[in-house]
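Internal ticket - ligand job 445, glutamic acid:
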Amino acid sequence: MKYIERVLEEIKQKDKDQPEFNQALEEVLKSVEVIFKKHPEYEKMAILERLVEPERIIQFKVPWTDDKGVAHVNRGFRVQYNSALGPYKGGLRFHPTVNLSVLKFLGFEQIFKNSLTTLPIGGGKGGSDFDPKGKSDSEVMRFCQSFMTELYRHIGPDVDVPAGDMGVGGREIGYLYGQYRRIRGISERGVLTGKGIGYGGSLARKEATGYGLVYFLLEMLKANNIEPAGLNAIVSGSGNVAIYAVEKAMQHGIHVIAMSDSRGYIVDEKIDLKAVKKIKEELRGSLKDYPKLAKHGQYFEGSVYDAKLKAEIVLPCATQNEIDIKRAKAIVANGCIAVAEGANMPDNNDAIAYYLEKGILFAPGKAANAGGVATSALEMSQNSMRYSWTFEEVDEKLQDIMKQIHEQCTDAMKKYRLDKINYVAAANIAGMQKVIDAMIAQGDY
Ligand code: GLU
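stdout (structure tokens):
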């Protein structure tokens, strides 16, 4: 479609140096043609141009001193993308690969993911190229304090509510929150989510992304009359999302046979999740130590997707662009019937096109991993009420939300008569239409 092509081309010219951002734009915009065909007036209103441009980008320096007294400087960012539905909401990523291209892709996707949760949150993302790996607790603390010393003036419970992402978990959120409270001199719990349970965090937030992913997967399998129990699964990653996806998948009788980290992967008939939790949550170590701890299973270097393991279910929960066309072909050739993304954009656009062509059930991250941010929004509700729900209450709400997201997808497939099962287009259409409606209702901002 000409309008979409034109906007994509303009951004390609303006942001030549932002490949991840361009990739995400292409994935989203090319699948929402039906919206713009139905509403030719959107072009005159420059809806797409308004959508692809972040409302605000903040960049700042983050100086900090290591334990030896050596000074370092990292880059800090916050992309406040779209607030039509509510305060900017989205994680902070601390990882050496962080740059503006990565954060703009994540922020753009976050707008529609958050819209799908049905909760009142806009989209944003932030982070730093700081690498927490191998740093001591006090180094991480000093970094977080320096980061928040700049960020605090741009956020607030009704303005922008950051949370965790890769490299930012409970420890980092604690340090960030402490510094915010210290500078502002006010106990404003709703400013960050993913907090510790003792100071305003929500039960089940830690588990939410992984659990939510499996809830979505189960809905998708049910809609296609597939029984999950007894199927084999590969889960890449071994962070928060992967660990709790494995836990929930196992509870439903799915056999998880492999997990991975940045260097290698483990293969085991029955993954010992306790051992993985110990390595990753307590020791902050490598999966290399798994066979020793679990007393079974094997560790290999390289990508789990090059191992040609036979599995019906694949849950990519590591990072973006883990799966290209070659790996997608191998996944399908090894018997896969469903892929659900726990990470953001782990499959590139060629991989996704291949799954769709082969009739693989494919759940894109913005639908399948929305349980994390949805539970963050539930944490915000609890903070506003000054009250907390039980684990079961939060989990029940999460299940409900994941069901609703699935329903929005199947409704969009019906309403727009998508010619085959296409959760990518459906999630993008359903997520985007709400944002567009809210933007139009609020004038030409
Ligand atoms: N980083 C997570 C995501 O990609 C969670 C964000 C949040 O809880 O705000 O959705």
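Auto-summary: The pocket of glutamic acid is lined by residues 89-91, 163, 165, 193, 344, 372-373, 376 (CB under 6 Å). The first strand starts at residue 56 and ends at 65.
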